[in-house]
Amino acid sequence: MALLFYKDPEHSDDIVPEIRRRRPDLEVRIYPDLDAPERFDYLLGYDPPRELLEKLPNLKVIFSAGAGADALLATAGLPQVPLLRMVDDSLAELVSEFAAAQVLAWHRDLWSYRDQQTKAQWQPLPLRRARERRVGVLGLGAIGQRLTRTLRTLGFDVVGWSRTAKTIEGLPSFAGPAQLFQVLQQAEILVSILPLTTATHGILNVKTLRELPRGAVVVNVGRGAHLVESDLLALLEEGHLSGASLDVFDEEPLPEAHPFWRHPKVIVTPHVAGAISATAMAEVVTTQIARFEQGLDLHNVVDRAEGY
Predict the structure, then answer these.
(1) Which of 25, 83, 217, 224 is deepest in the core (most CB within 10 A)?
(2) Which of the residues are catalytic?
(3) Which one is predicted more confidently, 157 or 1?
(4) How many CA atoms lie within 13 Å of 39's alpha carbon, on the beta-carbon side?
């Protein structure tokens, strides 16, 4: 048995030692160490190139090294083996913390006070309780559900939306294209944490964003391709939207000349909402391999038709 790790620069150097510690019987190599490529049963990577996949004829399982599967699914020549998403409670915890922090910052006008500080202005702004602010969450997977619980614990009035219907105790939720606007029309702060699929590509556009109440705020911690950036800029300029916190972008790193960097109503962070630790990734990989070896059902298998 052997696993090949297609390692990106941002991946921790500790991932391979952690896998080896848990499974000393499993041979683990890092690309481009491809001696006898036919021996590899498993591939771990975010966006392995087609030429690599063509050299691995005996793959049995492919693990995404990221939370989503969009990069894998975009790879030409992907073999017909199970694709597994990297799902871990620690990632859900980190992303929900980050998104909740952005919601709180907009709710309590912290970005406005930061701007006042640069101008030495002392101007208290009106206060509202969290229960008086409705937050809409797009995407009700493991991370989205964790976020809705966090926001509700803080007191916010939360509604959710997902592509397919979900029943979540205590959470008013909507599903499908026909019900998307019911969430948008009542969300003063909108958080997108959707997976990237054909159906969600460009979902935050001038038509959908204009359905938000005037003065609403957008927080995107899903994928950059969810957002039509020019449409957001236009709605900010005309005052329909009052701000945005963006952690993901169409092009990363965000180009130096991009208007988001200097826009007074946009908060930019460099794709840092969450990450899967080396320990967690190794635990997911080795647990799934053990299930595969025992003939058990695998967890978090990507539905190629749905895109996640």
Answers:
(1) 217
(2) 223, 271
(3) 157
(4) 11
Tens digit of each residue's pLDDT (9 = 90 or more) over 8-22: 988 999 999 999 999
Q: Which of 122, 97, 128 is nearest to 215 (CA)?
A: 128
Distance of CA 139 to the CA centre of its chain: 10
Q: Quick check: 173 and 160 in contact, CB under 8 A?
A: yes
Residues in the chain: 308
Amino acid at 282: A
At 73-92, the pLDDT tens digits run: 988 889 999 999 999 999 99
CB atoms within 10 A of CB 132: 12
Residue 32 has pLDDT above 90, yes or no: yes
For residues 95 and 273, the answer to whether their CB atoms sit within 8 Å is yes
Distance of CA 50 to CAs 114, 236, 273, Å? 47, 40, 29
Q: 240: helix, coil or strand?
A: coil
How many CB atoms neighbour CB 192 within 10 A?
Answer: 24
C-alpha dist (Å) from residue 200 to 68, 205, 234, 249, 288: 13, 11, 21, 14, 28
Count CB-CB contacts under 10 A for residue 307.
Answer: 19
**Residue ranges of domains in the chain, CATH in brackets:** 2-88+276-293 (3.40.50.720), 89-268 (3.40.50.720)
Alpha-carbon gap, residue 163 to 179, rounded angstroms: 9
Q: Is the pTM of this model over 0.90?
A: yes
- Give residues with Cβ within 8 angstroms of 38, minimum separation 6: 56, 57, 58
Residue 36 is predicted with a pLDDT of: 92
Tokens linked to 150: 């966090």
